[in-house]
């Protein structure tokens, strides 16, 4: 079970089978290697020195919550690296490409927006976690990848207060209250990360 109590994280037991959202909870801090913030940076060829410092500060903020520390360590352990770029022509404020590991910001200002970096780094985590990479879901399965990322942000938001605005998932008013209640059940009234996720309910809200 992966839990967070303020800044304290712990792990015991098996979080569940691989190949599912359970993966983000497999975070035994004692067996994972020490991390260096810069180990996830493969290239910053399009960034200025000022923008590189922005990125380092943003990564430092990212690993504040213990869930993100665990995610970052797992990515580093698996050799997941990113080519950080700025490209005003991209369609979104930030975008992760699983085919080439480019993490592209639309502008330098977006580096300082934690909500953008958080979600795209999580997509990189997904790419390192799934056996055949997330590029296989470029079409079929894309909604599942996106829902995982939004759910991750909501869990982070209610436990650590750092996941960005709740909710990352958009529902009609008819389903919003049910989704919030599910998050409450998953997190033991918003107090800890879940050790098991009911996949029936997960699939219900995914659909």
Automatic annotation (TrEMBL):
This is Uncharacterized protein.
């Amino acid at each position: 079970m992966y839990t967070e109590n303020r800044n304290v994280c712990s792990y015991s037991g098996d979080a569940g089978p691989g190949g599912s959202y359970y993966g983000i909870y497999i975070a035994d801090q004692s067996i994972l290697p020490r991390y260096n913030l810069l180990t996830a940076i493969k290239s910053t060829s399009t960034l200025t020195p000022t923008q590189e410092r922005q990125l380092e500060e943003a990564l430092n903020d990212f690993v504040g919550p213990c869930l993100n520390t665990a995610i970052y360590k797992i990515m580093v352990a698996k050799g997941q690296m990113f080519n950080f770029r700025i490209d005003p022509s991209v369609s979104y404020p930030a975008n992760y490409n699983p085919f080439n590991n480019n993490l592209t910001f639309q502008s330098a200002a977006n580096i300082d927006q934690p909500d953008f970096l958080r979600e795209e780094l999580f997509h990189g985590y997904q790419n390192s976690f799934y056996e055949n990479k997330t590029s296989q879901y470029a079409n079929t399965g894309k909604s599942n990848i996106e829902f995982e990322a939004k759910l991750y942000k909501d869990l982070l938001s209610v436990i650590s207060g750092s996941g960005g605005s709740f909710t990352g998932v958009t529902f009609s008013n008819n389903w919003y209250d049910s989704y919030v209640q599910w998050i409450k059940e998953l997190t033991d009234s918003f107090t800890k990360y879940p050790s098991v996720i009911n996949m029936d309910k997960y699939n219900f809200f995914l659909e």
